[in-house]
Amino acid sequence: MHPSEITAERVLQALGDPTRRAIVQRLAQGPLSVSALAEPLGITLTAVAQHLQLLEQCGLAATEKVGRVRTCRIATAGLDVLERWIRAQRPLWERRLDNLAAILDKE
């Protein structure tokens, strides 16, 4: 998937799954094979591959096959999209919290 097609909604949806969050957290420590990812999760290699496919589509993971081993690593395109979305939302939420604080101060 091209980085311009990655959306914050898709990234958040992908990270909404605890298994995918665990995969991303493990990949943040360094590259791992699919079998190494599957082992502590207690799920099949097929299930891990399906989760990885979605994470790749969201720019959160990348895989490479060398011989018979598929190695996975963290990717940052999805995190970059999410960071821009959060940065764009921040002023709105800061205004809302400031307004709430002003209302509560009056009481």
Kindly provide the name of the CATH class: Mainly Alpha
User: How many angstroms separate the termini?
Assistant: 52 Å
Strand content: 5-15%
Can you tell me the number of structural domains?
1
Number of helices: 5
Described by the principal axes of the CA atoms, the overall outline is elongated
Query: How do the SSEs run, as a string of H and E?
Result: HHEHHEEH
Strand order of the largest sheet: 1-3-2
Uncertain ranges: none
The proportion of residues forming helix, as a percent range, comes to 55-70%
Major sheet attributes: 3 strands, antiparallel
CATH level 3 topology:
Arc Repressor Mutant, subunit A
**If you average the pLDDT, what whole number results?**
92
- The radius of gyration is 18 Å
Q: What's the architecture, going by CATH? A: Orthogonal Bundle
* CATH-defined superfamily: Winged helix-like DNA-binding domain superfamily/Winged helix DNA-binding domain
DSSP strand count: 3
Q: Which structural class is indicated by helix and strand composition?
A: alpha+beta
Which keywords apply here?
107 residues; alpha+beta; Arc Repressor Mutant, subunit A; three-stranded antiparallel beta sheet; 13% strand; elongated
Structure, described:
Strands 1-3-2 form a three-stranded antiparallel beta sheet. The protein has 107 residues and is an alpha+beta fold. It has a single domain, classed as Arc Repressor Mutant, subunit A (Orthogonal Bundle). Helix 3 packs across helix 4.
Short synopsis of the structure:
The protein is an alpha+beta fold. The protein has 5 helices and 3 strands.
